[in-house]
Amino acid sequence: MLFSEILGQDYIKNHLTTTALSGRIPHAQLFVGPEGCGTLAMAIAYAQFILCNNIGTENSGGNDACNLKFHSFSHPDLHFVYPTVTTEEIKKNPKSLDFIADWRSFLTENSYGSLFDWYQILGVQNKQGEIRVEDAQEILKSLALKSYEGGYKIMIIWMAEKMNIAASNKLLKLLEEPLDKTLFILIAENEEDIIQTIRSRCQVLQFNALPEKVIAEALVLRQNVDPRTASKLAHQSQGNYNKAVQVLQETGEDVVFEKWFVDWVRAAFRAKGNAAAIQDLIGWSEQIAGLGRETQKKFLSYCIDLFRQALLLNYQTTSLVYMEPKIEKFKLENFAPFVNGNNINEIFKELSDAMYHIERNGNAKIILTDLSIKLTRLIHKK
């Protein structure tokens, strides 16, 4: 992964290359940024720049054999940790090393991929991904070994906010007493979810969502999209390159989420004063409850975004509206009048509470049925 392949983030590229060339590399760094902005890709490019001595133009001119190893993300001095779950093959105490082949395939296909994309590969079903103490023990083992090429050993911890307390405490000890020529790169979307003692020992770099112009240019060059379509997709992506590609290919979760949302609100409209229609809501709740918890949480987050878009449209701020539902006979402008200042706060609260309870392993069917009945009342509130 070369710096020239990273979209935007020029300031951070310059900062990282400067620290590497000057030999002033902080032993622990935390890359924080929203989904699809390139934090993981940047971390890998930074690791390649350091390990392969790529001081030439466009991150090249270094050790060719070393650069070749990075093509398959298999450099012996580069280590990864990421959330995992138990599977049919790994029934107990899963750790990142158990899924390294899947991980390398994931990076090869799309280094801008999301946590949800990774969970789909793992087949999480009703489980929730986590970085466990077994991963922290593997970190200790990996870093205790001598560097393969005599230089740095680099540990990239993706979605560091998914570390449980036991793993966090073990990692903290390593950060407090760093080994010589060892670099930790933690990557997170929600900095506040990482324990304060770890955050305080890291140099934090904040990544911004990608500008629409950068995403549009990438779509034209990498996906052969015409400039007009690329601009439209870039606007819809909201700074997330991964989402822009998925919208283009119609392979993202938004396609099915949109259908679930429309079925839900249509049933909620019919249910007012119609006891028979309540069965539709119950049936919908059972359908969504049968999905994995990560999918349920992602869908509820999508619902929050769509309600927010409807509110913006209702208040005539059309320049901020980027969602364009494709379901037949469902138009956002017709739905928007039902989302207003009198009900939006309660709708957000109920959706957020549902996400909270699902994340804590509450009964999804009961949570979603309760949410659906409340939506029936709120959606008719004038």
Fold and architecture overview:
- This protein has 382 residues and is an alpha/beta fold.
- The protein has three domains: 3-208, Rossmann fold; 210-252; 253-378.
- It has 17 helices and five strands.
- The protein has helices spanning 10-22, 39-51, 64-71, 100-109, 115-122, 133-144, 165-176, 196-199, 212-223, 227-237, 241-249, 254-271, 278-289, 293-314, 332-335, 344-359, 364-378, and strands spanning 28-32, 78-81, 153-158, 182-188, 203-206.
- It has a five-stranded parallel sheet, with helices on both faces.
- α7 (165-176) links the parallel β3 (153-158) and β4 (182-188).
- The chain is globular.
- The N and C termini lie far apart (53 Å).
- The relative contact order is 0.10.
List keywords for this structure.
single chain, 382 residues, alpha/beta, Rossmann fold, 3 domains, 5-stranded parallel beta sheet, 5 strands
Question: What would a concise description of this structure say?
Answer:
The chain is an alpha/beta fold and 382 residues long. Helix content is 52%, strand content 7%. It folds into 3 domains: 3-208, P-loop containing nucleotide triphosphate hydrolases (Rossmann fold, 3-Layer(aba) Sandwich), CATH 3.40.50.300; 210-252; 253-378.
Give the SSE layout.
Elements: H1 10-22, E1 28-32, H2 39-51, H3 64-71, E2 78-81, H4 100-109, H5 115-122, H6 133-144, E3 153-158, H7 165-176, E4 182-188, H8 196-199, E5 203-206, H9 212-223, H10 227-237, H11 241-249, H12 254-271, H13 278-289, H14 293-314, H15 332-335, H16 344-359, H17 364-378
Parallel strand pairs: 1-4, 1-5, 2-3, 3-4
